[in-house]
Amino acid sequence: MHRRPLLGWVLPAVITVVIAVYLGGALAGRWDPTATSGADANTAAVPESTDPGHRKAQQELCPLISEPEILAIVEQPPTNKGTGTSYDPGGAWHQCTVSLPHSALRLNVSRDGTRIADYQKLFNEAQPRTVLGRPALWLVDPAPVVNIPLKSASLLVAWDRGDTGGMVEVSILRDTIDPADEPKATQIAERQLPGLPDWP
């Protein structure tokens, strides 16, 4: 892990924990509902939750990635096998994942103040991009997600053009990384991220 003196040790540790949560703890809402360190999650398409965190993800994120025409970008035919949500109890991030027969599409909105520039300093393999006029990164993780036999390819887009903090993650998860997933994730981001509430 590359580290700059400006960041010290606190920020890398925090970001590492966040990434572990993103990639290791939440695919299709697969949280342990009895865990005390996180919220429970819906693991299938169910009526709207009464839990505020799940309801926020269901209302604000899931509609953006569950449309058949969006799922068709990821996999054909676009068969929705279930939708799951998860979130940080402190409100730092919300997430929705739609499972398809052979892949999954995930949308995560983080408002914890972490910048794209911070990620770029920490991960040399992250490739800088510009999406919707904002700094962005393309990050491929060739290792399977913890406890899940899928690999992730993620487009991280700064919440605002100045990269002042917060980001949106569009991830495609598959058994095998597909190089064609970058233009697919970019297409989804360019089409759907302006539909997020308060998108600047």
Summarize the structure.
The protein contains 6 helices and 7 strands; from the N terminus they run ααααβββαββββα.
Describe the fold and architecture.
The protein is α+β, with helices and mostly antiparallel strands and 200 residues long. The protein has one domain. The chain contains 6 helices and 7 strands. Strands 1-2-3-7-6-5-4 form a 7-stranded antiparallel sheet, sandwiched between helices.
**Overall structural domain count:** 1
- The value of Rg in angstroms is 16 Å
For the largest sheet, list the strands in their spatial order: 1-2-3-7-6-5-4
Proportion in helices: 25-40%
Percent of sequence in beta strands = 25-35%
Shape: globular
First and last CA, distance: 31 Å
**Structural class of the helices, strands and pairings?**
alpha+beta
pLDDT < 50 stretches = 1-46
Determine the number of helices (DSSP H or I, runs of at least 4 residues): 6
Largest sheet properties = 7 strands, antiparallel
Mean pLDDT: 79
